[in-house]
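Hi L.,

As promised, Biliverdin reductase A:
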Amino acid sequence: MIIPGVRRTARSPDFFLTGVIISVLSLMVIITMLNPSYILKENKIKCRVGSKDRGCQSLSFPEALEGPPSSPGTWGGHLRWLPGHPTQPLEEETKMNAEPERKFGVVVVGVGRAGSVRIRDLRNPHPSSAFLNLIGFVSRRELGSVEGVPQISLEDALSSQEVEVAYICSENSSHEDYIRQFLNAGKHVLVEYPMTLSWAAARDLWDLAEQKGRVLHEEHVELLMEEFAFLKKEVVGKDLLKGSLLFTAGPLEQERFGFPAFSGISRLTWLVSLFGELSLVSATLEQRKEDQYMKMTVCLETENKRPLTWIEEKAPGLKRNRHLSFHFKSGSLENMPNVGVNKNIFLKDQNIFVQKLLGQFSEKELAAEKKRILHCLWLAEEIQKHCYSKE
């Protein structure tokens, strides 16, 4: 049948098929271009250590760069939070689609609890561990090797060109000396809190790190805990009337771990991170050395003149626990509910450290973190002075 006005041609079906093929191919190209792994591969950027070039972000952790907004008057935003929940497993949330351009040689100083966890994380296949190469560990004890990792001398760790990073996991009293030695040797440093047992020493070490162009990172895993994430959500936007935080645990040797305000600085960091900069009103220290009993009571004040009480109580038989009470105009929060198990908090801290090595933190973020850490160390030193002045 011939339809008037329509011209038939034997080639019309070929033209139609060609158009379909071109459309399908175009769609495949678009999908490929939108694939994150393709983008990461095509935009591969060589990132120098400590670079402030924001392009370095394409090398790692693209999903973990931003966090929940800070509330007014709190110390939020200085850490990189995983999306949705601050303690989601790194294996699920931090996907890396490219091999690192280089690996940083690492030595772990001290193989106690924290040092052993650091060695475990460095040896296991995690996103941030892919940027790090564990060379060995340093210890005052003659151990030979731990989990197949060789022991090396401090002198070799300081002089080795292979070693570029030191994890300081030793007793608190030794942190300052180790940090200074490794910075002077041109190494980057990750140190367990507290960085030092004096505010002035910490400030000097930070100046030294900046002079050497090296990263100095103080670990604060307490800010990566489920409990802190819960508290931050509870506190945001609320007007505090008064609050208290009591921590109990077994005794610690002050000669090794420092004055209680320093050894317990993670609790002080919680209060500062939740309520902003604090001022010291009073501090007392009760001790019975024959019973290994210690109780430090600190009265603090927020910028709005709201009272906060921090108590550290330690003695044989006391269970490790936190008791808190925060009263707001809109209600009260008494004690901590069961909010889940803390997973991979040291690994998450390593994640943050590697981001710093790759230059993925802005100057503003680094300055805010430094200000908070130095403020807490300054408060700890003032508390120590007040307690000793009463003796």
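The chain has two domains: 54-223+345-364, 226-339+381-389.

Thanks again for sending the construct details.

K.
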